[in-house]
Amino acid sequence: MNALGYELLQEGKTEDAIEIFKLNVSAFPNSSNVYDSLGEAYMTAGEKEPAISNYERSLELNPSNAGAVEARKRLRESAPE
After folding, report:
1. Are 71 and 55 in contact (CB under 8 A)?
2. How far apart are alpha carbons 44 and 65 in whole angstroms?
3. Contact, 29 vs 49, CB < 8 A?
4. CA–CA separation, 13 vs 81, rounded Å?
5. Burial environment of residue 63 by CB neighbours within 10 A (0 to 12, 13 to 18, 19 or more)
6. Is the pTM above the cut of 0.85?
């Protein structure tokens, strides 16, 4: 399912990708990877708050996810004050 989400992202179908990643989160709520993917899709859509929230959940499940740490940092730095 994650592969389908990334295919949709690459095709520019961001909202469809978000829906697929949401389904994946529902199916695998204990997987840090699915939250990371959903965070990436939200980031691509320019939706910073849900992106940060999903990266944070990914980090709760896998604190060593360096990609999520970096993405969350970038999002926070670019967020308006």
Report:
1. yes
2. 19
3. no
4. 30
5. exposed
6. yes
